[in-house]
UniProtKB/TrEMBL annotation:
Protein's recorded name: (2Fe-2S) ferredoxin domain-containing protein
Highest taxon, organism lineage: Bacteria
Record InterPro entries: Thioredoxin-like_sf (IPR036249)
Organism: Hoyosella altamirensis
Amino acid sequence: MKTDESRKRCTVLIARPTPSGVDLASLQRLADTVGAEYALLDQGEPSIHSRLDEAATRSLAVTLVPLAVPRDRYLETWIARSVANWRETRETRLDVTITDGVDSTSGLTAAVEHLASQPGRAITASPRAFRSPAWSDMPEHDRHILICRGPRCTAYGAGGVFRAVQDEFPDALVTPTGCLTPCNLGPLAISYPTGRWHPNLTPETISDL
Ligand code: FES
């Protein structure tokens, strides 16, 4: 974890993947450029909890930067709630602060103005790519398992559960989802055709899915 040793403080950029994912290489480059680490609120890892655990191990204060354009109030709300949950579930005291969002900076306005003044480049994508034949194939599967990767389940370890389910059930259709609602029972999944809920999962307790 990169630190400002003189301040004993580290900075963590917090992003939130879209349903189609997030460009982690680009996020890593940005973090490297500004001397920070990154974490993901949901849908991926490292989680906010794991970054705070790292910082606590090294006795570092933490500044969190919500990284969303346009502003994402869900991101900011759940960063705060994740920190509150981390504090409630750990013995350690940690100085954690949060900055304003990226949209609050004049630099963002200047960057958008600069781009808007450009002619742009030609778009050369083929229309065939919009309807690839592969997207007519309905995948065979013996069951459909929906695994919540919302912010609370992410904090409770949904990433490890997701990977374990993919390994354990190669013939299943495994779909990550946003919040499925019974968050206090996370990490959780619902599987079909039974329609059964599977609460409080760990990589060791997925066998009855
Ligand atoms: S975050 Fe998983 S059920 Fe809400």
